[in-house]
Design brief:
This protein is mainly α. The protein has one domain. It is 76% helix and 0% strand. It contains six helices and no strands. α1 crosses α2 and α4 runs antiparallel to α5. The radius of gyration is 16 Å and the shape is globular.
């Protein structure tokens, strides 16, 4: 049985979740901003799917870069690719669902970004805690 009361694990999982959120946000927000500034006939759903995919890719790239401080590039990339896609997809989905619900989708503005980030952080955080506690599996 996993204890959900370990402050050390909550802190460590919060750091891991924050790094993932940074990586995901770079790709996600960049894609949405691009389409916001360059209108096209892409559907909102298409833009959001591309934003999620780009968010996953930038998260993997950032994690790989961070891990190269601790290991060789091949091992760093393998570790980054082996991270929990469940966590990253949940993060991306929650951020984009918030965007769709609050703005209609594919729109960034000063008030929605913090809400998207909070949702993106809180959604996978308990899973990341559980994974760290159960498997001692961490990306950093």
């Amino acid at each position: 049985m996993i204890s959900w009361k370990c402050k050390h694990t909550w802190k460590k999982s919060a750091v891991n979740t924050s790094w993932c959120l940074l990586g995901c946000s770079i790709g996600d927000f960049s894609t949405i901003l691009y389409f916001q500034l360059n209108p096209s006939d892409w559907t909102t759903m298409s833009i959001m799917m591309l934003a999620m995919m780009n968010g996953l890719l930038t998260s993997i790239a950032l994690e790989t870069y961070i891990l190269t401080k601790q290991m060789d590039i091949k091992s760093a990339l393998q570790t980054a690719l082996g991270m929990s896609f469940i966590s990253m997809i949940a993060m991306e989905a929650s951020m984009n669902i918030v965007d769709v619900l609050l703005t209609g989708g594919a729109e960034l503005n000063i008030w929605v970004v913090p809400i998207m980030l909070i949702a993106g952080f809180l959604t996978p955080w308990p899973y990341n805690y559980w994974r760290l506690k159960k498997y001692n599996a961490s990306c950093h």
